[in-house]
Amino acid sequence: MVWWAYDVGLELAGFHRGQAEQELSQLRAQITGLRKETVRLSSQAAAFERQAQIEHAANLETAAQLKAITEENIRINEDLAFFQNLSLTDTHKGELSIHRLKLQRDALPGEYRYRLLLVHSGQKGAHQFEGRIQLLINTLQSGKKTVLLFPQEGVASEDKAYQLNFKYYQRIERSFRLPPDTVLEGMQVRIFERGVNEPRIQQSVTLS
Fold first, then answer.
1. What is the dihedral of CA 21, 26, 31, 37, to 10 degrees?
2. Most exposed residue of 90, 129, 158, 189, measured as fewest CB within 10 angstroms of its CB?
């Protein structure tokens, strides 16, 4: 009787238990649906983020490739202009020369990149040039001047990266790394012909 009177009092006050339970069930269903939607949206957002990262990486790679292609085109045009001018000058058969020698810092600390163009007389009938390239790196280590040799003595004839074999010209672009706390002061490039102990030509360059 007490509970009946309580329910009657609630209904008279405008509260209907059945309706409230129905609304409560609807709210619970809505909460469940919202949770599922949240999970779906979170998963979708994660997928979009991964896709964005992939596209960003692809864009960076494409930009790097485009930069490399652009630089290569510039060098090819420079080579073309250089050889066009060279063909107008008098050259002796078998003459060897170094052109456009540059030394720059590379991407990593302590790493340096050099490039040069070796030209062997462009006249027809010039023999194949075979030899090697040697680098003398002038450095300052702990206040003391030091000369580093690339490649090391004894391995010059075995290191293919420093071997030369061309008829008219060879463009060289490589890098080397110095020990930590080493200051680069300059570099000398030496070109040796096979079987000859004295350098055929040599040229020095400073960091640009």
1. 170
2. 90
Joined tokens for residue 108:
């990593």
Contact partners, residue 16, CB within 8 Å, separation at least 6: 10
CB pairs under 8 A, 24+ apart, for 158-162?
162/132, 162/133, 162/134
SS3 label, residue 105: strand
Inter-residue contact 133 to 189 (CB < 8 Å) = yes
Query: Mean pLDDT, to the nearest integer, of 174-199?
Result: 92
Scanning the structure block, which residue is given the tokens 């409230």? 20
Nearest to 21 by CA among 4, 33, 2, 7: 7
Q: pLDDT for 105-144, tens place per residue?
A: 998 889 999 999 998 875 555 678 899 999 999 999 888 9
Using alpha carbons only, what angle is made at residue 91 by residues 85 and 94, rounded to the nearest 5 degrees? 125
- HSE-up (13 A, CA, CB side) for residue 98: 19
